[in-house]
Amino acid sequence: MTSRPYAINHIPQTLDAEAFRYTLEARPAVISFTLSDPGDDLIRQAHNVGARVMVQITTVAQAVQAAKRGVDVISAQGSESGGYCGEVSTMALVPQVVDAVSPIPVVASGGIFDGRGIAAALMLGAVGVNLGTRFIASTEAPAPKQWKEAITAAQSEDAIKVEVINDISPLPGTAGFNTVLRSLHTTFLDEWSAKREQARCERDRLRALIVSTTQAGHQHECLLTAGQSVGGINEILSVNEIMRRLVAETEAALSSVATRGKQMRHEPAKLPHDSHPGSSDVPMPFEFPEPDSLGG
């Protein structure tokens, strides 16, 4: 495959024992687990073959549990993510996880599509980022053209959580970390989201339909898995160009923050002279009452 470091991911609640055995034999640099607590045994097996273990979590409590199990890296996945995700946003989740599991390194995931997002994640204490949707819309990604074009045409609000998928296929979403799939609209999802009780009754047929279209390379007919970062993705680019832009944008964003920080230290922000709350010199959204009107 490659002589470079790579990772292999597994979902504990739907773990394929044979696939995991092959993973251990491959001895990847990283074995990651997502959507559920992998437990001590899987982590031990991964460590025994020399792999580092990363667990993707959606809450602080899950991160603390992973840290206690001795994982090497924690991926904090915000609710903006595509695929199965939780309820807490990346901006709120990452710094809390960083504080809770330090000194274990934390990777930020969810809603990041450019260098500004990477710089923000670093400011929150993350050591790196995990981007998914941005790389689906790359020329090298083995995804149908229609999926990539749907991402570049979508707005952030088009990436919706689809509870009906857990009705059709309870695993992995209803077990483990209790997550819900985020996808762009499709005719299939819009139809069955309006008929969830019927979808539960016909789950075997509908699950078979999803599987068959995926195997045929037409998964976009049922699912268009993508995160809310779609609103900032307007082009299908090569991985090389995506990486070049991400690095350049991150460096520019961090440099800009450093420059603004120096300016603020040497030139503290000042209100216009003789101004006070309520003064016509300073635009205020409301007037502050005078002290005696507060009974003080």
How are the secondary structure elements laid out?
Blueprint: E1 7-10, H1 17-26, E2 30-34, H2 39-48, E3 52-57, H3 60-68, E4 73-77, E5 83-85, H4 90-101, E6 106-109, H5 115-123, E7 128-130, H6 133-136, H7 145-153, E8 160-161, H8 164-168, E9 180-183, H9 187-193, H10 196-201, H11 203-215, H12 239-266
Parallel strand pairs: 1-2, 2-3, 3-4, 4-6, 6-7
Antiparallel strand pairs: 5-9, 8-9
Helix pairs in contact: 3-4, 5-12
Entry keywords:
single chain, alpha/beta, TIM Barrel, six-stranded parallel β-sheet, three-stranded antiparallel β-sheet
Strand percentage: 5-15%
Question: Domains counted in the coordinates: how many?
Answer: 1
Q: How would a textbook summarize the main sheet?
A: 6 strands, parallel
Number of helical segments with 4 or more residues: 12
Percent helix, as a range, is: 40-55%
- The CATH superfamily label reads Aldolase class I
The end-to-end span amounts to 74 Å
- Compressed to H and E, one letter per element, the order equals EHEHEHEEHEHEHHEHEHHHH
Question: What's the level 1 CATH class?
Answer: Alpha Beta
Low-confidence segments: 279-288
Q: Find the count of extended strands (DSSP E, 2+ residues).
A: 9
Q: Averaged pLDDT, please?
A: 92
Alpha-beta classification: alpha/beta
Structural shape: globular
- In the CATH scheme, what's the topology name? TIM Barrel
Major beta sheet, strand line-up: 1-2-3-4-6-7
* CATH architecture label: Alpha-Beta Barrel
Radius of gyration: 23 Å
